[in-house]
Each structure stands twice: as structure tokens, then as C-alpha cells.
Amino acid sequence: MLLKYVLRRMSIGLVQLLGLSITVFFLIRLLPADPVSRLVGMNASKEAYAQAQAQLGLDRPVLTQLLIYLGFQPDVAPGLLQGSLGVSWVTGSQVTAEIAAYLPVTLELVTLSFLFAFAVAVPVGMLSALRPGGRADKGVFLYSLFAGSQPEFWWGLLFVYVFFFKLGWAPAPLGRLSPMTTPPPATTGFILIDTLLAGQPAKFVEAAHHLLLPVLNLAFVLSGPIIKMVRQNMLRALQSDFVLYANSIGLPRKVVARYALRAAMAPSMTLIGILYGFMLSGAVLVETVFSLGGIGQYAVRSVLAFDYPAIQGVVLVITAISLVVYLLLDLIHAAIDPRIAY
Amino acid sequence: MSALPDIEALPALPPKPADWLFRIGLAIVITVTILAVIGPYIGPYDPTLTTVRVAQPPPSLLELPGLLKGWVAGTLEYPPHLMGTDVSGYDIFSRVIAAPRTDLMIALTANFLSLVVGVFLGLIAGYFRNFATELLMRVSDVMQSFPVFISAMVLVTLAGRSTSNIIIALAFVYIPIYIRLTRAEVLSQKSRGFVEAARAMGNSEIAIALRHVLPNSLTPALIQSSVTIGFAILLTAGLSFVGAGVRPPTPEWGLMISTGANTIILGEWWPSVFPGIAISLTVFGFAVLGNALERRYEDG
Known about the structure:
The structure holds two protein chains of two kinds. Chain A is an all-alpha fold. Chain A is built from 14 helices and no strands. Chain B is mostly helical. Chain B has 13 helices and no strands. The two termini of chain B are 24 Å apart. Chains A and B meet through helix 1, helix 6, helix 7, helix 11 and helix 12 of A and helix 6, helix 7, helix 11, helix 12 and helix 13 of B.
């Protein structure tokens, strides 16, 4: 049953991704941008322009370009069917390889920020739900409304000013490691894991130190909606019949709270998934502030350079990851909530 | 005949004493709206012209009363730079109060466009259920699965970094939300008694959809507006911050923060901090307002 559900969800996801790839493909070609003149420059001769156009494959009819992109003409160039996202027009290397290099940084940043925000939000949201309308609850409500509506990049700059410039506690916002440090051999691409695998604890500490401010920055913004959600779901759970029953048979408050928390976490999973997907591209501003070199910065670079294959690749990969995260969280939801069966 | 839907629409927004938080939110939103109209004209300097004083820090709080007195008395060499000047010599105060013209105008127009288009499509998708509206929902699903920031960036950059293109891009990314909200509300409204009554009176389906179902299905979309306007301001500022938004020297908060981002690491905090406070308060104001409306709607 479960396997069938997962397979069904994955096939829907694949259709969605196909629709998305085709939409993005046409959308960026419909817009009045001229990537060829962007590459060869405004004053290039007609011959140079035509040559560049042919090199990028833009002289072919649009439908042929689409077929090549999707991978139906592998003799011209490998496409999606062959597992290739094409070649970057700016760097000339495979888009898949470039994304594989940039993506781990973002995944590391976003995942750690979520864990951190969650670790803070769950107890805070629970406490505020235990006494709704109380002073603590009002304060928490105000905080979550505020944190959820903040320009995260500005807070990032403030953090840099206070913790780097004024106090000197944080390293300069110049990347995942100090510019002088040689990065560990890339095994997984996740620098925190790679340093441990290579047995370089000093570099692990350095990498963690560089990640501290960006993670705090994102976690601050994320904590707003997460606290609000935990509080709401917890309130609903505390008012439900099973909590009334548990209380009436005299179970200790701790046990009841644990039951209620479990019931409150289940519906939270959906929003967590949506937030995670949103953050994969939303982290771009924090990545820019701290020059982390994640997928968001790669997207900015590609968009500003009119690098179509890279743009298509980034959008596709980010959406694909979001869909996988949605699926995983729905499965976790089902595992927590016994009422849901697939 | 129209009395019936009006009675049903009333409890959606019951008159309730506003709490202090709501008043703060309202005050912020009104201030920013007024600044969007008169902001560019009331600053001591032209927001798009540089001065000769570059990277001047703002006056300290102790100097401030003297400066203001001198300004009023006209004994100063030049009007004070209340928030300092940036690396190009722009007066930050004049630009901070001129920026709502850009930020709020973009956010309001984009929200209005997506609200109108989204509500209309949502009404059709909810009221008439057939192959075409199913297709519409699937397209809307695909649009909603786009990464918001990246799609806005792609649309703006490839279409050309102009204010109108930013508005269109933002409207585009926010349309699916309104389709979804309105459709859900229409689905719950169209089986209500007043629809049956309108049908029994011999109204055509289109008239029922437009005159009876639509007014009753607007509330969720209108509440969402306040949230969307706030997020649209954040998105506009974020686009400028990565270099995919409005062009300098347009006074825009995100662009100003981005100008100051290069020097904040050297201790020049004022070019980024003041416009940031402005965004922070503005979006918070809209969030408070949206939340208050939402709670009233839920209570009612």
C-alpha cells in the first residue's frame, strides 16, 4: 500500500516536473532578452553574432531546441532523458556538475537552520499554548509576527556589523571557510561532513564557525512562522477529546503534554515542507550576504548572465527537491498520525 | 434580492474595539501610504541627486537638537543630513522617505493585479467545474511550485529591469495563491441556500456567480492582500539587493541596503541600517494588519 502510494506520488511529481521544465523553457525564451548579444557584446560583428548563436544552438527552431533539451535527440546533445541539464553558456561546463558543487552548501545551511529554528520553536510554541492569552503567550505571538515579517538580508548585515565588526566573535562574511584555508577533499560536498571524513577537526570547527551567523540569521526568520504553527496546532490538540480523556483518567501532565505534542506535530509537517521548499530559493539573500556560494547565488549569477541552461537546471532541481521533501514529510506525517492510511 | 448576500457578508468583519497592536500596524501603514504620495517632495534634498559630502555619518543624538534649531533658524551652511550620506553622497533621510513611492507602489499595484486576476480565475474555477477549469488548476499548481524568488528574478532580469516589469513579475508569482483561496471559498459558498434562492428566482448562472457568490467569496483574498503586500515589499527589496531589481538612483529601500552592504563590514552602518528599519517596520505593519483582519474573520 505504502509503496503504491509513493510510486503514485512520484509519477505525479514527474509529470509536474515535465510541465515545469517545458513552461520554464518557453517562458525564458518568450521574454525579450538577447543572450547572444549579452555573450558576444553589443558591438560584435554580424558574423561573430551568428557564430555564437550557432554555438549555443539558438539558430535551431525552438521546438528542436526543446526536443534536444528534453533528450529526444541524443545524437546532437544529451538532454534530460540522458540525465543531462546541458552545458552552461558562460563557463562551458556541465550544469549538473556545477549544481552538484553549489547545492550542498544550501542544503547544509537550510537544514541546519530548520533544525535550529525547530529546536527553539517547539518548546516556545508549546509553552505559549499551555496558557493561551497569558502574558508569555502575547509576547511569543508578537515575536513570531515580527520575526516572520523581516528582511532577512538586512538582519544578516546587522549580525555581521555587530558580531564581526564590533565584537569580533564571528569570522568575516567571506565564504564557507577562510580564504586562506584549503577546502577538504570533496567526498559528499557537505563541508561539515567532508572535514570529518578527512579527519580534519580544526577545519570542521572553522566551517561550523563560518556557518554560525548565517544559520542564526535564517533560523531567526524561520522561527516566526514555525512558532505560530506549533502554537496553533498545540492549542487544537490540547482542546481535543483525547487530551480531555487523558486528563480525566489522571495521567501526569508531562505524559499528556507529550501526547498532545505528537498530535500537534503531525499537521505541522505540511507547512514545514512548504517552508523548506521556499527556503531553498529564499536562502539566496543570506547566501549573498555571507558569500557562501550556494545554489541561490549560482541562480543569481546565471540569471544575470542570461545563462539559459543553468537557469532551467536550477529551477528544475530546486523544484524536484521540494517535491521530494513534501513526499518525505507526508510520509512522516502518516507515521506520526495513525488515522492517516495510504 | 441583493439584501440576502449583504446580511451574510456582515458577520465577516464585526465591529470590534481595535487593540493597541492593531493601532500600531494601522499607523505604520497609513504613514507609509502618505509618504508614498508626498515623500519625494518633503525631504531636505532631492532623493536622486548627489551632494558633495560623501559617506558622512549621521549626527549624534546630542548634536541633533542644535542642528534642528539651526535648520529652522536658517543659520546652517546646508540642511542637516539626519541619517548621514552614502558613498555616492546621497542624503539617506531624503531617500528613505522617498522610497515608499517605489516600494509601496510596486507592492500595491502587483497585489492589485494578482488579486483581480486570481479572484476572477478562482471564481471561474470554483463555480464552473469542467475540463478547462481543471486544466487551469493544474497550470496554477505548476506555477505555484516555481521557486518564488528565482522566478521573480528570472522574469524581471530577462524582461528588463524596469518598475513595470517588477510589478508584472510579482503579480505573476502571487496569482496562484488568490486562485486557490478564492476557489476554495467559492466551493464552500456555492452550495449555500442563497445561491439556491437566487437560482430559484431565475437568475442566470453567470449572474449568480458574479453578483451573489463573488461578493461572498472575497474575504479570504482581501485578508491575504495585507500579507501579500508585505511580502511583495520584501521581494522587491530582495531583488534590488542581488542586483535584479530597480536601477539606481531610484530611491528604493533594498537598493539602499545593498549600497551600504559593501561598507558595513568597514563600520559604516548608517547607509544600510536606516532603510532596513523602514522595511522592517513597514512589513511588520502590514503583517499586524493582516493578522488582525484574519482574527476578526475567524471569530466572526
